[in-house]
Amino acid sequence: MFDQPELAKEKEWLISNEAKELRKKLAKEKEIPEDDIIWVSEKGKDWDIISYLQQRNILNYVCAEIQKRFPEQYQSADDVYKIFLNAHFTGRLLPLARIVEKTFGEGSFRLLGNMSIDKQGGVLHLESLKKMRVKQSKMESKEKIMSHSNISSE
Question: What is the pTM (predicted TM-score) of this model?
């Protein structure tokens, strides 16, 4: 969009060293990632950020954990993210629900679906998902041990 001639002046401002310094200052003051600040005014009084920071953090966490759980299917977290996009645009949620539940355990997909847009809800959901992941990992380890001991005894 910034390649449009009408926005050339705005683009020049946003890539200037002065704008970068204002973004850095704002990020430190507001305790947000600098890359999340997508626009800042020339005086630094007005600014805009990418929305839903907590929810995006959860999505990134979920994608990373799924990729770790299924490295042979997904080479990167971006590959997992494509599954989320596909489910969003096609409405076919079942493949996504299956990998989420296999990674985080029963009820985890419903938990994701019930996430609200407020910051505190995002924090609580992330903590819940982390706990579910630990519990699921322990169950997977026990299953591996049990299946390995069954194979050895045969």
Answer: 0.70
